[in-house]
C-alpha cells in the first residue's frame, strides 16, 4: 500500500521533533500503522533558518496554504501555534476533507467546539493528544482507558515551563527571570511566555481535560486562572517547613452544584507523588469512581516528547482512515449530542483549604485577634507558626493553614483581618489541596 502523505505546518521545536521522530522510527511506525507515513510538504516562515531536523525530501514553502491545498496530502499537522493563521489553516483543511493533528491547546480550548462540529460534518478526525501535558498520552487515557468510570476530579501539573521555574527556584535558589530565559532557550515556553507563568496555557489544557473527563463543552472563558509570579522563596520555604510543596496546579472537580475549573498555585502534601514531580516533567492525577486514583507522568514539553504525542495521533488517524466516521472515538470522548450543560462554578463558590501568611505587629494579643476572626467566620485552623521578627523589625510573620472553606467566606475573613491596625499590608493567600482519595 502507498504511504500516507502528510503536510506539516511549522518546523520549529515541535515540528522539527516530529520530522525527526517520523524519519528515525519510520519502519517501526509503518509496522504499527499498516502503511508508511511521509511528510511531503512543509511550511515555515523563514526557509533559511537553521533547523533541528533534516528536511531533505520535503518540499518547503513559506505559504501554509500551499501545504493545505496540496491534493496529495490526506493529513495536515498544525504546529504553528496561536489561533490566527492556525485556525484559518485548520478550518481550510477540514473544509477540504483532510484530517488534522495539532499540538495547539489555545486553538482547541478556544475554538474546539466549532472545529469539532465542522470536522464531524465533514467526517474527518481532529487529533490533539500533544495539546495537553506534552508526551503523556493523557487524552487517550481519559477518553478511552477510563471510559468506564465516572471521573470525580483530576489535578495536574500541566505546564512544563512553570514547573521548571518553581523547581529551580526551590532547589537552587535561582531567580524567576533567569530560569524563564533558560526555559525559552530549551524550547519549552510558549511564543508569549506570560501564557506559561500566568497560567493561561495550563487553563487551555485544563479546559480540554475537563471536557473529555466530564463530557462538557470546552469553556475556556469560565476557567479561573492565577499565575505563579507572586510566589516568593519565603512562601516556598514556609510551605516546606509545614510539610508541603507549592505547585502550579490545574484542578477540575465534579460537585453537586456544578464543575470547578481552576488553575492556581497550590500547596500539596509533600508525601504525594505529584508533589515530587519536578523540572519540565508534568503529571496528572485522575480520580475515577471505579478505578480510584491513577497518576500519569512524563515530559510536559520539548521537541521529541511532544513529537511522540503528535506521531501517536498521526498513527491513530492512519489506522482509522478507512473506518466509518460515525463509529470513530468522539473528539471530546462523549458523543457530541450528549454533552452536559451543568454550570461551571464561580471561584466564590469553590471550596478548598488555605495557606495564609501575614505580617503582624510583634505584640501580645495579635495572633488571638486573627484567630478569633477566623473562628467567627467558621474557619478552622489546621496549623499555625509565628516567625520572630528579624533584628529591629517591628513585624513578625504568622503562617496559618486552614481547613476547607468556601472561597467567599475566606475572602470576607481576609478583609476583616486586613482591616486590623496591627496587620501590615495584605494577607498572602495560597490555596491548598490534600489530593486524597475522596
Ligand atoms: P515554534 O515557535 O518553535 O514553531 C512555530 C513554527 O511555525 C516555526 O517553524 C515557524 O516558522 C512557523 N510559523 C509561524 N508563523 C508562520 C507563518 N506565518 N507561515 C509559516 N510558518 C509559520 O513553536 P513550537 O514548536 O514550540 O510550538 C508549536 C505548537 O505546539 C504551539 O501550538 C505550542 O503551543 C504547541 N506545543 C509546544 C510544545 C513545546 O514544548 N514547545 C509542547 C506542546 C505543545 P519559523 O521557524 O521559520 O519561524
Ligand atoms: N509551554 C508549554 C509548557 C509547552 O511549558 O508546558 C507544552 O505544552
Give Rg in angstroms: 24 Å
- Bulk shape: elongated
Distance, first to last CA: 51 Å
Count of folded domains: 3
The overall pLDDT average reads 96
The CATH homologous superfamily of the largest domain is called NAD(P)-binding Rossmann-like Domain
SSE class: alpha/beta
Report helical residue fraction.
Answer: 25-40%
What's the SSE blueprint?
Layout: E1 4-9, H1 13-24, H2 26-33, E2 37-43, E3 59-61, H3 64-69, E4 75-78, H4 85-95, E5 99-102, H5 105-122, E6 126-127, H6 138-145, E7 151-157, H7 160-172, H8 176-185, H9 194-197, H10 200-214, E8 224-225, H11 233-241, E9 244-254, E10 259-269, E11 281-288, E12 292-299, H12 303-319, E13 351-361, H13 366-376, E14 381-387, E15 395-402, E16 405-406, H14 407-418, E17 423-432
Helix pairs in contact: 1-12, 4-5, 5-10, 7-8, 13-14
The structure holds NADPH dihydro-nicotinamide-adenine-dinucleotide phosphate (NDP) and L-homoserine.
NADPH dihydro-nicotinamide-adenine-dinucleotide phosphate binds at residues 10-15, 43-46, 49, 62, 64, 79-81, 85, 103-104, 130, 134, 187-188, 190-191, 301-302, 306.
Description:
This protein is of the alpha/beta class. It has three domains: 4-135 and 303-338, NAD(P)-binding Rossmann-like Domain (Rossmann fold, 3-Layer(aba) Sandwich); 138-299, 2-Layer Sandwich (Dihydrodipicolinate Reductase, domain 2); 351-432, ACT domain (Alpha-Beta Plaits). The chain has 14 helices and 17 strands. The strands form two sheets. Strands 7, 8, 9, 10, 11, 12, 13, 14, 15, 16 and 17 form an eleven-stranded mixed β-sheet that branches. Strands 3-2-1-4-5-6 form a six-stranded parallel β-sheet, sandwiched between helices. It is elongated. The N and C termini lie far apart (51 Å). NADPH dihydro-nicotinamide-adenine-dinucleotide phosphate (NDP) binds next to α1.
